[in-house]
Write a structure and sequence with these properties.
Structural class: alpha/beta
Shape: globular
Mean pLDDT: 95
Strand content: 15-25%
Order of helices and strands: HEEEHEEHHEHHEEEHHHHHEHEH
């Protein structure tokens, strides 16, 4: 490392993160390894009544974020970079990307057709960074797709699997765990489970997410609010019962799993039902754990059993019984490590810090999806 690189590595960079939701905007301020602020600005729906598109909400959200930061006495001139949640873009490899005019255009147009205000993360970050005079980034965005060709194939010609997981949190946990082990994420093999309202179980091989369950696409474990595995025959059976395809998709992506079976996606309430003697609730809870264990073993199989660790993260990783039962079912594969909660703020800030300190090369959006059929069989 040259002298400039040494100086950069020694500096404690200050990063502002922006993570919009439907009715709120989460913002964070991270200095070095410390989260200084991790706050949420709530929005009244009336504020957006005149907004025809999500992009129309941007001035309102920017104003409210600035007001919130001012109340916290944050000097924006001390910020070294702004990071926005990467949503609404074409599929890409993992990494830290610069936000340029093309990225802002794609997020504004929502080229991925996500139809969610999270697409504002990039737009707001770009505006704030320009005003401050610092770079803007997005890190391991939602559309990260690093599937190996074998995982991408189906048995139908011209039909290919896409990646659907939680790359921001999963990769952060993988990087963090590797550092604790004195290793590099790119040198390790992990099965990482993000367990929230949706559950994604992913094979991370040498820094790439080569295979994954498709959370929200009727594939994978039974989840608090997603159905998990539904085969074509299951879908046909539901349609014969008069369930519309639109409703079936909702069961797969938003209203299935525990919430359909038991009327709640709160696992704590499910366990209260079990404690009160509800035998069906116990079967549902047991089935969710069973499918989690099964898919974990499948992702270990995707790496031919060469697994350095199984990493559990997300809100459900706070459930000690669930964690213990997953350990009992999977520790024959590899040691199991637990990182409960979500690390989105840390993940966004860490990506920017790795770039600013010279430990990681920033990437640039190509403007095209990372994979199409013409690339099948070619070297990555």
């Amino acid at each position: 490392m040259n002298q400039k690189g040494q100086i950069l590595a020694m500096k404690e960079f200050t990063i502002l993160t922006i993570n919009p939701g439907s009715s709120s905007t989460k913002y964070g301020l991270v200095k070095g390894d410390e989260i200084v602020l991790d706050e949420t600005v709530d929005h009244d729906r009336e504020e957006f009544a005149s907004c025809k598109t999500f992009a129309d909400q941007k001035p309102i959200r920017v104003r409210l974020i600035k007001e919130a930061l001012a109340k916290e006495n944050v000097d924006l001139n001390q910020v070294d970079a702004v990071v926005g949640r990467g949503v609404g873009l074409y599929a890409c490899e993992g990494g830290t990307y610069e936000i340029d005019d093309l990225v802002v255009e794609h997020a504004t147009k929502d080229v991925a057709e996500i139809h969610h205000p999270a697409t504002l993360g990039i737009q707001i970050a770009a505006e704030l960074a320009k005003e401050i005079g610092v770079p803007a980034y997005y890190v391991n965005p939602m559309p990260v797709d690093e599937l190996c060709d074998e995982a991408r194939m189906t048995g139908v010609k011209g039909l290919y699997r896409a990646a659907r997981s939680h790359p921001l949190n999963q990769k952060q946990v993988g990087i963090h765990h590797s550092e604790l082990m004195g290793k590099k994420y790119e040198d390790c093999n992990y099965v990482i489970l993000h367990m929230g309202g949706g559950i994604s179980i992913t094979a991370h091989k040498k820094g790439r997410m080569i295979d994954t369950s498709r959370a929200g696409d009727a594939q994978g474990a039974i989840c608090p609010n997603r159905s998990g595995d539904l085969c074509v025959d299951d879908v046909a059976t539901l349609m014969k019962r008069g369930v519309s395809f639109e409703d079936i998709y909702e069961l797969a992506s938003n209203r299935g799993g525990l919430v359909d079976l038991l009327g709640t996606d709160d696992v704590r309430k499910v366990k209260e039902m079990i404690a009160d003697g509800d035998k069906f609730a116990k079967i549902c809870y047991d089935a969710m754990i069973y499918t989690i264990v099964k898919w974990t073993a499948m992702m270990a199989g995707a790496m031919y059993g060469e697994v350095d660790g199984i990493l559990l993260t997300g809100g459900m990783a706070f459930d000690e019984e669930l964690v213990d039962r997953i350990k009992a079912g999977t520790q024959w594969i590899a040691p199991v490590y637990v990182y409960p909660g979500s690390f989105e703020t840390e993940a966004m800030a860490s990506g920017a810090i790795r770039v600013l300190s010279g430990r990681e090369q920033v990437k640039k959006c190509t403007g095209k999806p990372v994979w199409d059929e013409s690339m099948l069989g070619k070297e990555k």
